[in-house]
Structures are given as C-alpha cells and as structure tokens.
Amino acid sequence: MEALKALAECWPDSARDIRLNLQVVLQEGALTPRLRFGIALASALASRQGELREAILRDGRTHLDEAMVDDAQAAAALMSMNNVYYRFRHMIGKESYQQLPARLRMNRIASPKTDKGSFELLCLAVSAIHGCETCVKSHEQAVLANGITEAQVNDAVRIAAVIHAAAVTLESVPADRAEF
What we know:
By secondary structure, the protein is mainly alpha-helical. Helices cover 69% and strands 0% of the residues. It has 9 helices and no strands. The chain has helices spanning 2-9, 16-25, 33-46, 50-59, 66-92, 95-99, 116-130, 133-145, 150-172. The mean pLDDT is 95.
C-alpha cells in the first residue's frame, strides 16, 4: 500500500478520515484482495483520477491480473454510458421513454474476462459512484443471483465510496502538494 500511502500523506487534515478509510477498505473485508483492488481500480477510473488509478495498479500488482484490469476498465466505460442513459430515463419518469429501445451495445456484460458475479460487482460499484438507481438495483440483483453476499456488496460499495472520496480529495490538493 506504499503508493496509496504516499498519495495520502500530502492530504490536508480535513481529509484525515478518507486517508484512514483508504487504508482499511483495501486490506480487510468480505472480498478477496483481487476483487478489492479490481473494484478500487474501476472506481478510480469512474472517478477519472489518474494518479489514484496508477497508485492502485502499483499497490495491487500482486492481486490484479490482466483479466481483472480489463474487466475494471470495461465496467467503468460501460457504466459511464449506461448510468447516464438509465439515470435520464429514471429521472424523466415518462413511460414513453421506457418503451423506447436503448439500442446501446453492452455485450461485454454477458462475456466478462473474469466471471459474471465479479463483473457485475464492478458494475455495481461504478453505478453507485454515478448515482444510477436503476443500474444499482439491477446489478445488485445480478450479483446476489451469482452467489455474492450482501456483506460483499456492502464492502464493494464502501470501497467505491472511499476511492471516490480519495479522488475528490486529490483534485482539491494543490499541484505542489503544499498544505492549504
């Protein structure tokens, strides 16, 4: 966790809780280290924070394989599209939009590089960051149907929340990393 620790060391005292949570969520819980780092990676990608993405890749190198990295990238990209579209339909609330076909390709969801449950969990974490109720509910049902427990779902969303908060913190820290 050296790369993430180095990033967090320059954070202001106002982000102390984020720094502490970052240390905890990636080191313990109901998920395997591979899934923890995969979710963290997908969350950093969804939060558009390059420094954080690179630190997660460095610290997770012993846990992440090519398939998990590829699925994290695919989940972040697909959910960035789907979350906008389905959040729009949900917010508008008109039945007429519900009847129109989405016509958005998302074949990758049916054939992930890892396994269906893991990929759906990555999608759930990204959807939670983007705040798409329709997608969160859909992916939560899918992960439970694939044998993932509610404790694991909870841990995945905790990781997504902390990674997103870390991304926001990094964006608020001055480029020279000096204290405010």
